[in-house]
Here is the input.
Amino acid sequence: MSKLTILFLTAALFTVESCGQTGGSPQNASRQSTASAQADSCDDPDAPIGCCFVNMPERLTHIMAIADSAEKGTRIIIRGQLLKADGKTPYPGVILYAYQTDNNGYYSKNGRETGIQRWHGRLHGWCRTGADGEYEIHTIRPARYPSNTIPAHIHAAVKEPGGDMYYLNDYVFADDELINERYLSRLRNPGDNGVITLQPNAEGILEGQRITPLVQKTPARRY
Ligand SMILES: [Fe+2]
Here is the structure.
């Protein structure tokens, strides 16, 4: 066998093995890529709002626990109520989703997130409003992004019993000096402005309230 033949056979063998390691032909690679995209089409920071509700537990109560007691940060409780568009009638059965930064201003991950939570991070949760439209969020106070130019906030989206989904104005905090006329003038969503005043309750935990009429029927973008 000539040296040239040996060189050719070696090159051919290497090529076959390489294809095996990389998953086969370009067509196969393309199919796998498509399959992955189909498997988790919510793994996208700009995924449709419906992705916010894909990973939620089957059974929800009116209490959303975003952060457990081990989470670093100042503990807060937000007691809220969702109302129908008339601004008076309590709205039961609405699913609320929320997600937030950690005590350092990051949407930190635990590595087990899937779908849109790969972008929203581990500090997220869901609840369903009770008979009086009420809910509670038990969490820590989020920190501003490290850039320090946007008020600390908790993002939130709702899904009505009929299926309408949209974002609410963020939860923000009245004692944040970045909450000012400029911030309020730039709010995109109708309803309430999301500004929460925190005060210590009997146990010394900071607590705030929010009442939100659900007056919008279009999925305004998160911001
Ligand atoms: Fe944010």
About this structure: Residues 49-213 form a domain with the Protocatechuate 3,4-Dioxygenase, subunit A fold (CATH 2.60.130.10).
